[in-house]
Amino acid sequence: MCLEGKPKLAGALALVAVVLVGGVGCGSADSTRELAEFYTQRIIWGSCSGFAGGDKLGPEVECAKVLVPIDYDKPNGTTGKVAISRLRARGDRVGSIVVNPGGPGASGLDKADTLGKTALGERFDVVGFDLRGSGASTPKIECLTLSETATLRPDDYQTDWSPSGVETVERNNRDYVDKCVERSGTELLGHVGTREVARDLDVIRAVLGEEKLTYLGYSYGARLGSTYAEAFPRNVRAMVLDSGVPLDGPVADLVKFYASLQQAFDTYARDCAENVDCPVEADPSRASHVLQRLLNPLIGQPIPVGTRTLTYSGAVTAIVAALYNPAGWSTITSGLQQLRSGRGDILLDAAETVPGIVDTTVQTAVFCLDDPRTTDRAAAAARQERMFAAAPFLNDGNFKGQAPLDKCAFWPTPPTGTPHTFSVSGLPPMVVVAATGDPAAPYDGNQKLAHQLNSPLITYRGTQHGVFLLSGSTCVDAPVLNYLTELTPPADGLLCQPA
To answer: Which interval of the chain is the signal sequence (predicted)?
Structure first.
């Protein structure tokens, strides 16, 4: 392993860390010297007001941009800038901790603000960053204009499975990628995968003045952390990987994701059934059926909500997002109760908040580079059939055995990653955190990740995605904070209950 190593990684909804990405190669002495300008640059911290999303950050948060090559194999070529943010430690400073919230494509700048105000910010400068191609980082991946989004972006949950419906979605996917190429160029579209983001992360470590990286990654952030650890094992000080998503290949990953969503929905349904006027039933098979009975009329007759409209896809988007944390379950219940009376305000309001959480344009680009692709319609149909079998609550019953090719099938550059088993020596102890009922990250995948990393696993008995500093569990938070500050890992097998 060496500093110039380039790991290759593999990877629908903001997801998915057991099998990790690729081989690591060593650059020449010449390439090391060529990268020196990036590793030795001096950044200038200042106000975040000129950064996309910066106006939402507290005045004490500082922002800067880090120069990086678009293609690390061509350090003298085109460059970009990665936006970073920092909230300085309140107390006796240990160093900087870099945080990634997941997605890929979730906003990173605000994590300095939100996590910096928790116990984490007592001893650490908390640093957030926007992935290359997203947010305040430049150049930004551009695909559709606002006016084009309505016509070229298919619904997240397809309902027309007729041959013409499949053809329409596939044509829209192809047109979408064509627009990406036209507006972003193939060089950028081919260099926004996790392989490059891990390289950016090491440059960030260097310009922060840290000899070794202290890192916290949630969901996709766990994949990124694992990739970094494989590429730069000697540069890791401490690393917490929370709610990592599986990386067994794109088809297996999607099926596991759908199965995890079904598990979360079943848990919600059992909880809901204990209350009066629950709109679904506690029996999992009945609950899924009752849900679709409520939602299916939206396929032919969406519900007007003022000048807006609640579609089937919008309702499902709202429900899936609400399953990520028990705090959202009341939204599902009240939204479905309202739907029974022919109104869709609650579900539509919830659905419209989801696109702002993750930059789906960047998410698509990362997944298309990190994963092997499905380029055969028969394979796409078989994948879809397995997904519906894993999550009956998402099956509208209209699937006819045909499915469109997705956007990645038309991506203009080849994948930069392939699934493989994580294997690296020289790493310090790391910590893996996982919830048993995580809606997006199967618990057994995190068990495998901890085993492959030879690191302790903290288990949280709960149904949510993201645990450390997000669950209110002192049982989880205290040992992780102690590990980050003192480098003393917790005992393996720690089991924590919800507060």
So the answer is: none
pLDDT of residue 380 exceeding 60, the answer is: yes
Among residues 85, 134, 184, 219, the one annotated as catalytic is 219
- Residue 458 phi/psi, 5° resolution? -100, 120
In the chain, % of residues over pLDDT 70: 92
Is 289 known to be catalytic? no
CA–CA dist 425, 428 (Å, integer):
9
* Closest alpha carbon to 440 in 11, 8, 14, 7: 14
Other beta carbons less than 10 A from residue 293's beta carbon: 10
SS3 493: coil
- Residues 438, 471, 473, 477: which is the catalytic one? 438
397-430 exposure pattern, b = at least 16 Cβ within 10 A, e = fewer: eebeebbbbbbbbbbebebbbbbbebebeebebb
What's the rounded Cα separation, in Å, for the pair 363 and 397?
A: 28
Structure letter (DSSP) for residue 26: P
How far apart (Å, rounded) are the C-alpha atoms in residues 402 and 385?
A: 9
pLDDT > 90 fraction of the chain, expressed in percent and rounded? 81
What is the pTM for the complete model shown? Answer: 0.91
What's the pLDDT tens digit per position in 258-303?
999 999 999 999 999 998 899 997 777 799 999 999 999 999 999 9
- State the Cα–Cα distance between residues 483 and 331, nearest whole angstrom: 36
The structure tokens listed for 260 are 């995890």
Q: For residues 450 and 8, give the distance between their C-alpha atoms in angstroms, rounded to a whole number.
A: 20
Catalytic residue, chosen from 175, 465, 471, 473, is 465
What was the pLDDT predicted at 299? 95
| DSSP letters for 177-246 | HHHHHHHH-HHHHTS-SHHHHHHHHHHHHHHTT-SSEEEEEETHHHHHHHHHHHH-GGGEEEEEEESPPP
- What is the dihedral sign for C-alpha 177, 179, 185, 188? negative
Q: Which two tokens stand for residue 182?
A: 């036209």
**Do residues 367 and 11 make contact, with C-beta atoms less than 8 angstroms apart?**
yes
Cβ neighbours of 274 (radius 10 Å): 8
pLDDT of residue 355: 72
445-470: average pLDDT: 94
Token duo for residue 11: 């990877």
Please list the residues that pair with 81 across neighbouring strands: 67, 138
